[in-house]
Amino acid sequence: MTEHIDNNRLNEDLRYRFEYLSKFINFTSQDIISLNTLATIILPRVPVIVDAVYRKLFQFDVTKNFFVLRNDGFDGKLKTEEYLTLDSAQMTYRKDMLSGYLKRLLLQHEWTDDFLQYLSRIGRMHTNKTGASSINVDYIHINATLTYIETLMIEAIWNVENLDNKTKKDMLLALNRVFRLQNDFFLLHYLEPSKETETSKHHKPTDKCTCS
């Protein structure tokens, strides 16, 4: 039997959206267990992964430029692009933020409403919708960065020798699913409902011909 999904509620109820996506991509409590187990492998490598991510972002001016902007929570003196290095104070702040995010993503035991709101805030803060605290990063760079982070973590799993194939498979599937969920929480804030959807919600049928 086909399950009904309320399309409007998908954009209004974060828990409802998460549950729909979870059912669609088969993200279950077993995936959360796999992520918690994966933490024992990834957490010692987090500093290396984070450093690699920001080195990649520094390779292109279009992404490096974002780091000369003041980030919400950073009160230190900003370096201009000309003098900005990976060891600058604002970059240390960014690295700490990404490290904390990865740790929480892997260690979270229960995906509570508070945690879903946290993942949603991560997406929203990168748009232009949070006022002075907005980073306003174009989505193309978000997608590229998430993909790069996932790739680094896949390589870390693949190179572990004392894991059986089933455990590796479970970890890789869980990792893929969790990044698809996070990516959707970015898109939730980047994409607005289409004009056609808005029009259809407010359109009322009429019996009169409006041809003339």
Shape: globular
Structural class: mainly alpha
Q: Segments where pLDDT lies below 50 for 5+ residues? A: 73-77, 193-212
- Euclidean distance between termini CA atoms: 45 Å
What is the count of DSSP helices, taking H or I runs of 4+ residues? Answer: 10
Total strands: 0
Largest sheet: none
Order of helices and strands: HHHHHHHHHH
Strand content: under 5%
Q: Mean of residue pLDDT? A: 86
Amount of helix:
55-70%
Q: Nearest-angstrom radius of gyration?
A: 21 Å
What does it look like?
The chain has 212 residues and is mainly α. The protein has ten helices and no strands. Helix 3 packs across helix 9 and helix 4 (46-57) crosses helix 6 (89-107). The N and C termini lie far apart (45 Å).
Summarize the structure.
With 212 residues, this protein is an all-alpha fold. The chain has ten helices and no strands.
Which keywords apply here?
10 helices, 212 residues, mainly alpha, single chain
